[in-house]
Amino acid sequence: MLVEIDIYEFKKFTILILLSCVNWRRNLQSLVAQTMKRSHGLRLELGTLFSQKEKASAHFEGLSGCSSSSNSKSLDSDPSLDGRFRRFSPSSLPRIRPGNFRPKAEPRQECTTEQRHDIVRPYATDAMSAYNEATGTTYELVEPGFLTSVYIGPCFLHHIDFTAKKIEVADALEEMFFSELTTRKGVRCVKVCKSMGPKESISGDKNNGCCYCVTYNVVQHPRGRGFSAGGAALFTDERL
């Protein structure tokens, strides 16, 4: 079977093959040259690093006194180091304990009597107004006492004490009052307010079984209960 071949196309095809071979050879030579150049630079960098490492090793050997030369000095006896380098043995290091990292507790800042009265006065005023309205009496607030507040879920619970006396009675004695209030969504409500008798007759335990106020024990509570005392751990009262 005979196949006709165009001489012009054959020459053109041959020239393209030769040009491709030439370009491939040039690319290969360029790649080899770049590789050799990079390897030479890498050898130079490695040589520099090894040289610096040897110098540093020799320097630190001289500082640490580990050199085998007879004129080497120990760190403790070399005055030129000025105490910048010291040897530590495990026994000389301080023992690390968890307590060493605890921040020192700052002393609690106690408020003044005037500041405490300003805080308690709004609660005592509400309690006194509620008591007068409920009993039909006319007591006036004499001195705000102490306040304990705890958060028990749906609201804040407040226990306060204060002194008051009757307005219409001449030379009336100051009476000690106890009140329990709650604050829910910014609204304060008086739950309990009762007189515990003349101020001079109050003595004994102030807490009287209240789990909410047991931490500070500053609010005078009535002996007959009648207030929210909370549970031993759950701090719950059904009527709240």
TrEMBL record:
Residues 62-89 are annotated as: Disordered. Residues 125-222 form the DUF3615 domain. InterPro entries: DUF3615. It comes from the Eukaryota. It holds the Pfam family DUF3615. This is DUF3615 domain-containing protein. It comes from Papaver somniferum.
